[in-house]
Amino acid sequence: MKTLSLSIISASLLAAMASVSAPATATDMKLKHDSEYVIDGKIYGLPEAKVYREEYNGPAVVGDYLTSVPHLAKLDYEGNKTHDVRMDVFSQQVEVAPGVSYSAWTFGGSVPGPVLHVREGDRVIFKMKNRSDEDVVITKPVKNGAPFFQQIQDNPYQKNQPVINPMPHSMDFHSGTVAAEDKWRTISPGETIEFEWIANYPGTYMYHCGTSSVLMHTAMGQYGAVVVSPKDGYPTDSDVDHEYVLVQSEHYLEEAAEGNYIYNHGAALDRKPSHVTFNGHVAALSDTPLRANEGDRVRLHVLNAGPSGTSSFHVIGAIFDRIWYEGDPRNEWYGMQTVLLGASNSATMDFIVPEEGIYKLVDHEFADAELGAAGALIAGPRQQK
Amino acid sequence: MNRLLQVTALASLVFSAPLMAQDHSHHTQHGDHTDHTTMNAAEVSHSQSIYQIDALWNTHQQSSLKLSELAGTPVIISMIYGSCTTACPVLVHDAKRLYNSLDEATQKQVKLVMVSFDTARDTPEALADYAKQYNLNNNWLFLNGSEQDIRTLATVLGVRYRQRPDGDFDHSNLVSILDKHGVIAERIEGLSQPMEKPAQLVTQLAKMTVQ
Amino acid sequence: MVKWLGVAGVLFSPLILADPVLVTGGTFEPPVLLDKQRLSIEMNSFMLDATPVTNQAYLEFVSSNPRWQRDNIAALFHDGNYLKHWDNNTAFAQGKENEPVTYVSWFTAREYCAAQGGRLPSLNEWEYASMQYRQQQNISDNDYARKLFAWYSQPHSKQQTVNPNADQLMHMHDRVNEWVDDYQLLLSNGDDVDLLSGSCGDGARFMSSFTNANYATFFRYQSRSDYAPQSTTSTMGFRCAYDLENHDE
C-alpha cells in the first residue's frame, strides 16, 4: 500500500515536471481521478463507467483519429493526448460479397468498425449510444464526424444502409485494462455508456461486443481494431512509405427466402464460414487494392478478428522483414514468410516491395483464401527518394 | 402530477450527485449462507422517485399505506421475508446499525421500511410479531403487499428474488436509502457493510428541504 | 367464450384478441438450467394468450386506464419511447390493429395483464408453452434454432400481423420478443454462476445438453435479461397468462 501511494506521488511529480518541458514522454502521464494509480509507468484504477440516457442524433463516430479500414490516421501530436471518442452501436445492411448482404450489428455502421489510432499512454474517454432501434445513415456527409465518414463515402464497398434491429450490446476494448463487468457492461437500446481507458501497452488490438452470445455478436459484425503506436516508435518508422490496417474475419451466412442473407448459428458453432474476408468484403482489397511502389517499405497492421478461425497471413512474393507480434516493439521477429494469428491476435509487419507488380495478400490456409481471405497490393515503378 | 414528481426528483438528483457516485457495484461482498443463494442486485434508476408506484400496502400496524405517504423524510428500505433465518435478520440488523449511527435529530425524521417477499406467510399480524421480536420502535414499518406489487417494488429497487420450491427465497441483500422525494440516493449491497458513509448521507438528506 | 376473463363483469369486444388457450401441466425439463439442482420442474396447468397482445387490445386497455396512456405514464415505468409508434394517446396507424403491440415496458405489460385478470407468464411457463408449441407445430429442433436466430438477425423481415381468432398457440418465435415476469433472473443466478455469465460465450454451463435448440433458447433468455424493465423497443411485446382457478366456465 505504501509503495503504491509513493509511486502515485512520484508519478504526479514527474508529470508536473514534464508538463513544463516538451516533448512529452510516458512520464508525463497525468492521473486524472483519485482512484488512479501507477505501476511500471502504466495507469490503472479508472473510475466506474456511467450509463445514462441522452438525446443524441449527431454523428455516430466522433474523433479525429478514427478512420475506415484500411486507413490509419496520422498521429499529428507530440507525447500523449486525451481522446474523446464516440462510436455508436447500431444495425446496418452491409454487403460482404457480390449479391450477399445481411443485416449486420455494427460499431459505427461498417464491418469491421472504425480503426482508432492512439499513442501508448494516451487516455481515451469513450462514449457509445445503443442506437440499434434507430435508422442511422453513414453514407451522407455529416458535420463534426470522424474522418471515417469521408472514407466510407469515398468508397462505400459495403453499400451500407440503415436497418432497425434492437439488441442489447456492449464494447470490449482489448487495448484497455479495466474491470470488464464494469466498463464492458451491456446496455439496452436507447442507453449510452461512458468510460475511460488508458492505452497502457502498444500494439494492434481488437475491440468487439462482449454481450452473450458473444459468438453471434461478433459474427454479426461487431469488431474492429485499435492501433496503439509505441511511445518511442518502431525501429523502422522513418523508412515506412505506406501503412495500412487489415482485419480478417469469418462470416456465417445462409440465404434466407427473399434472396437476402441471415446469420447461421449452426455454421458458426461448427466453424464452417460462408465467407472469410479482409476488411469485411471478399473484394475489398481487390476492387480497391493497397498501393505502393517498387522499393517501398510497407507496414501492415493485421488483426484476425475471428470469431473462431486462425489466419496464416502471407504476402505472395514478399518476405516480412520485421514483425512485431501483437504490435509490441519488444516482440520483434525477422524474415518470416507467414505469420500465424489466432482469433484476436495481431501483428505489425514491414515488408519491402521487391519489384513493380501485383502482390497478393492471402490467408495461406487456402480454404479461407478460397472463401474470400485474399486481396492485393499493386506496386508501381520505383520512385526516386 | 407525474411531470412534477419527475422534476423534483431530478432536482434532488442534481443535488445529491456530488455526494454519491452512481452505484453500479456488482461484486460487493456477500454473506456466506447455506440455505439459499444470494443474488446480485440489478442496476436501477437514480433519477426517478419510486413513489410513482401507486400500490397500496398493509402495514404491521394494521393500516394501509402508499409509499408516496413517506415523502418528506429520508427512508431506509430493504426487502426480507419473515421465515428467513440467515440473511434477513442481518439485513434488519444492518438497517438498525445505520439507524443507530444517526444523531438523535435525524433519527426522529427517518423511516425504516422492510417489505416482505412472502405475501402469503408474512401477514400484517406475522410482521407485527416480527417487529416485536426485534424490539423495533415506531419508526419501523413492515409491509405486506400483493405478489405483483412486491415484484414491481423489487424491480425498481434492483432487488432480485425468486421463490424456491421449498418456499424460501433467493434474493439480493440490499439496503437502499431514499431521499425525501423517494429517489434512490444510495444502495448498500451485501451484509454487514460499514455504515459511516451511509449515515452521513442520511444526515445530509434529512437536512435537505423539500422543494 | 369471449375473451378469457379472470374477473367477471368486464366487457370486451370479441375480436380484440384470441381466447387464451390451455397449457396442460406436466414435467418440464428446462433447456436452460437456472438452478443446477433442478433438472426437471412440475408445471401446473395454466392459460396463455394464443398470440401476442395486439395494438387493438392494448388500445382498449389504455382507453379505460388513462394512467397508462403515453402522455400520462409515470416516468419510472418506461424509457421515454413508450408507444412511440402510435399517433397519440389512443390512436395508431390504420392497418396495425392486429400487429403485436411493441414499445411496451415490462411494467406496462404487467399492468395490462393485471387489468385482464391475468399476469405475465413466468419464464418457465413461457418456455414450457414454447415446447408444447414446437410439438404442436411439428417444428424440429434444428428448424427452431435456425428460425429463432434468423428472427434475431432480422426481426422486421416478415409481415407482423397475428390472427385474432387463433385457437391454438401462435407466433411464439417469429413476431416479437416477449416479456416474462422474471426475465431478469438469469444473469443474477447467485454468485456461483454469475461471475462469467455477463460476458463471453460461457453458455455451456447453463445447458442440460448443448444442442442448437437449447443454445437458441439460452440466447433468448440471455439477451432479454440485458434489457432494463423500462426498456421499450420495436421488437418487444408480450402475452398474458392466467391462473386456472380463475376459470369460471
UniProtKB/TrEMBL annotation, chain A:
Alphabetical keyword list: Copper, Metal-binding, Oxidoreductase, Signal
MF GO annotations: copper ion binding; oxidoreductase activity
Keyword Acetylation: no
A Pfam cross-reference name: Cu-oxidase_3
Positions of the Plastocyanin-like domain: 92-139, 185-231
Listed InterPro entries: Cu-oxidase-like_N, Cu-oxidase_fam, Cupredoxin
Signal sequence, renumbered to the chain: 1-26
Recorded superkingdom: Bacteria
Protein name as annotated: Nitrite reductase
Native source organism of the sequence: Idiomarina seosinensis
UniProtKB/TrEMBL annotation, chain B:
Molecular-function annotations in GO: metal ion binding
Disulfide bonds: C84-C88
Keyword Cell inner membrane belongs to the record: no
InterPro entries, per database record: SCO1/SenC (IPR003782), Thioredoxin-like_sf (IPR036249)
Binding-site positions, Cu cation: C84, C88, H171
Keyword Metal-binding in record: yes
Signal peptide range in chain numbering: 1-21
Pfam families: SCO1-SenC (PF02630)
Record keywords: Copper, Disulfide bond, Metal-binding, Signal
Similarity annotation: Belongs to the SCO1/2 family.
Protein's name in the database: SCO family protein
Native species: Idiomarina seosinensis
From TrEMBL, chain C:
Single GO MF descriptor: formylglycine-generating oxidase activity
Source species, domain of life: Bacteria
Gene3D superfamilies reported in the protein's UniProt record: paralog of FGE (formylglycine-generating enzyme)
Domain Sulfatase-modifying factor enzyme-like: 20-241
Database matches in InterPro entries: CTDL_fold, Sulfatase_Mod_Factor_Kinase, SUMF_dom, SUMF_sf
Designated name of the protein: Formylglycine-generating enzyme family protein
Species of the source: Idiomarina seosinensis
Upper classification of the organism: Bacteria, Pseudomonadati, Pseudomonadota, Gammaproteobacteria, Alteromonadales
